[in-house]
């Protein structure tokens, strides 16, 4: 239950270290299975047996990517809470780049396609800076206690016994 809440809980706050420690592996799984699903989808031609096999692999890859995307959103939501921002920011940080990614940009003229790509990169860079590098709210906010102060308190309490000896 602890691992489930760690990866899929949307309540509470995460500091930067936990964000990176959980976010990197989840991101790798997400992108790997998105690539596997896309490769299988584009390569599925030939006999009916091969098509069925490709469909099963595609469904499995899509399921795993969906689970990883949900975990990624939960991790980012808790990091946003640490920054004292609501989870609705996930639409900007995840939804807009996803919409740009699936948009048929190859059908657009060069300049609008370039501007969409630049907007995508700018939003993703902002997301990395906001979630990965900026300090969370000091002290308790509406989403819970400061994870850094809670960790510091736990370490002081744990080491207090050593200092008394």
Summarize this, please?
The chain is an all-alpha fold and 165 residues long. Helices cover 75% and strands 0% of the residues. Helix 2 (16-43) runs antiparallel to helix 3 (48-82) and helix 4 (89-102) packs antiparallel against helix 5.
Structure characterization notes:
The protein is an all-alpha fold. The protein has one domain. It is built from six helices and no strands. α2 runs antiparallel to α3 and α4 runs antiparallel to α5. The mean pLDDT is 88.
Query: Helical segment tally?
Result: 6
Structural class, by secondary structure, is: mainly alpha
Q: What is the N-to-C succession of helices and strands?
A: HHHHHH
**Sheet with the most strands, sense and barrel status:** none
Low-confidence stretches: none
Span between termini = 37 Å
Give the number of DSSP strands: 0
Q: What's the SSE blueprint?
A:
Elements: H1 2-8, H2 16-43, H3 48-82, H4 89-102, H5 110-132, H6 147-163
Helix pairs in contact: 2-3, 4-5
Offer a few descriptive terms:
mainly alpha, 165 residues, single chain, 0% strand, flat
């Amino acid at each position: 239950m602890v691992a489930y809440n760690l990866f899929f809980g949307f309540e509470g706050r995460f500091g930067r270290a936990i964000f990176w420690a959980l976010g990197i592996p989840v991101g790798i799984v997400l992108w790997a299975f998105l690539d596997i699903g896309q490769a299988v989808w584009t390569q599925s031609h030939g006999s009916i047996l091969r098509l069925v096999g490709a469909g099963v692999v595609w469904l499995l890859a899509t399921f795993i990517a969906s689970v990883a995307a949900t975990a990624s959103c939960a991790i980012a939501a808790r990091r946003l809470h640490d920054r004292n921002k609501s989870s609705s920011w996930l639409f900007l940080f995840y939804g807009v780049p996803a919409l740009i990614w699936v948009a048929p940009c190859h059908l657009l003229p060069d300049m609008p396609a370039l501007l969409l790509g630049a907007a995508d990169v700018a939003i993703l860079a902002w997301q990395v800076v906001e979630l990965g590098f900026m300090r969370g709210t000091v002290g308790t906010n509406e989403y819970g206690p400061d994870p850094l102060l809670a960790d510091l308190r736990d370490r002081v309490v744990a080491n207090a016994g050593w200092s008394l000896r």
